[in-house]
Structure formats: C-alpha cells, structure tokens
Amino acid sequence: MNNLELQKISKSVRKRIFNFKTKTGIGHLASCLSNVDILVSLYNDDDTLFNHEEDIMIFSKAHGSPAVYPILVDLGYFDESELKKYCTPEGILRLHSDSTIPGCYHVGGSLGNNIGYASGLAYGGEKNVYVMLGDAELYEGSVWETLMFIAHHNLKNMRLIVDRNQLGILGHTEELLKIEPLEEKFESFGFDVKVVDGHDFDDMKSVFSKSNDKPEVVIANTIKGKGVSYMEDVWQYHTIIPKKEEDIKIHP
After folding, report:
1. Helix (H, G, I), strand (E, B), or coil: what is residue 142?
2. Domain 3-248: top CATH class
3. Sheet holding 216-221, edge to edge
4. Residue 163 gets which letter from DSSP?
5. Angle between helices 3-24 and 36-44 (to 10 degrees)
6. What are the b/e assignments for 21-30, b being 16+ CB within 10 Å?
7. Angle at Cα 6 formed by Cα 23 and Cα 33, nearest 5°?
C-alpha cells in the first residue's frame, strides 16, 4: 500500500473519530487524533510486521484507544453502524477499548497499568505484543518498574510505542515535569530505541518492518489534535470536545 492510500485511510479514520466523538461529547478526542497514523501504519501497511489477526495491541494509553475503532470497521471486525452507537447502551463500542469488542483485548483507564498486563502476555511468549503508551503516562512509576521486568526477561516479542505529542492533561510535559532525555533513559534500561515521525509513513515503515533481537521502544513524535487546525498542539483540548456548530464544521 502506497503513502497516498495510507494518507487517505488516515483522513477517513480521523473524520469518523471526530464525528462519533463530537456526536456523543464523550472521551478524549485530541488524544485519539495524534496516534491515528501510527495505527494506520501498523494495521494497514502490509510492509509492517504487525499482524492484526495474530498479534496483540494493548492501549496503555487507553483514552486514545477509540482511534482504532474505524480501522477495525474497515478490516471487517464489526459494522460501520457501530460507530454511530459509540458509548450508547445499544452499541458495542466503549469509552475505552476492551475484550468484549472484536479486535480488542483489554480495558484500561488508570495510566501505567496496561503495560504491566501486556508484559505478562509477552512473558507467556505465545504472541507478539504491541503497547501504545502516552508520553505523560511516563510520569507513572509502574511504567518504569515494568520496563525493568521486560528488559530482565528480554521480552523481544514486545514493541513499545510512545505517542510523543508532548502534551498532558494540564500542559506541556517538559513544563509540568520534565521527562527528557527519553531516548537515553530507555536505552539505560536495556531497550533498543528508535525515534520516528509519527505522521510519516515511510519513517514508521522503516522501523515497523524490521524485527529486533531485544525489546524495543519506538518514540513516535506526533501532534496532539492532528488534523483539526484549531485543536493541534493545544493542551486544553485534552478533555474538551468541540460543541459549537462552527467548530464541528471544521473537521479532518
């Protein structure tokens, strides 16, 4: 699949996320928009190693997990009509993805928890496990405890992806509580670290198409609220979903 096709898919995914989020007014829209291209690269680019039928994707950044819903629709896991029933009693799609939803595996909410669950799955050794982390999630000590476990057991069937949009719920990560230098920190824990542009399909393919002989962390630099001009890189939109008609007209 070429880049134009992938970009077209990403635009469609963002538009549908925007539509079902603004319709219900529930959840974290901007956080979903930043990791769309990463998910499209993994799920839709045949040159990447991720196999959505065999591998496991765990959203430790659970508030960004609804970004995968339109992708799963396109792959045939459930009907498009479910997007319109997001977070309603009649639908199957929850605020955060969980194991009741086809193509999803585990519910999350409290940051720092799901990477631990994912490492347990990887320790079982039967499947490849991918974990989507938020960068502000790295404030949680449980993340770093789990990194020690992963490195100690050389869980090379794990690939951690940090959605590095540089924004948390209250502002810029480096102003709230500095987490850089991330690359050096992950390396010191024994990980192979790659840094990519989380909106560049060639850049992501160059990493996601290759296997590794030790646990890997991919730091994907992204833009929070990507695709909606007035939301991009504005931390206040972490919890705000557009309601005004003139704002809803401006969609991805």
Report:
1. helix
2. alpha beta
3. 56-59, 129-134, 158-164, 216-221, 192-197
4. E
5. 130
6. bbbeeebbbb
7. 35
Who's near 86: CB < 8 A, 6+ residues apart? Answer: 20, 21, 23, 24, 26, 66, 69, 93
* pTM of the predicted protein model: 0.96
Q: How far is CA 9 from CA 4, 117, 141, 176, in A?
A: 9, 30, 36, 34
Q: How far is CA 163 from the centre of its chain?
A: 6
From first to last of its 252 residues, what are the pLDDT tens digits of the chain? 899 999 999 999 999 999 999 999 999 999 999 999 999 999 999 999 999 999 999 999 999 999 999 999 999 999 999 999 999 999 999 999 999 999 999 888 789 899 999 999 999 987 999 999 999 999 999 999 999 999 999 999 999 999 999 999 999 999 999 999 999 999 999 999 999 999 999 999 999 999 989 999 999 999 999 999 999 999 999 999 999 888 898 888
The domain locations on the chain are 3-248
3-class DSSP state of 134 = strand
Residue 144's φ and ψ, nearest 5 degrees, are -75, -30
Residues 6+ apart with CB under 8 A from 152: none
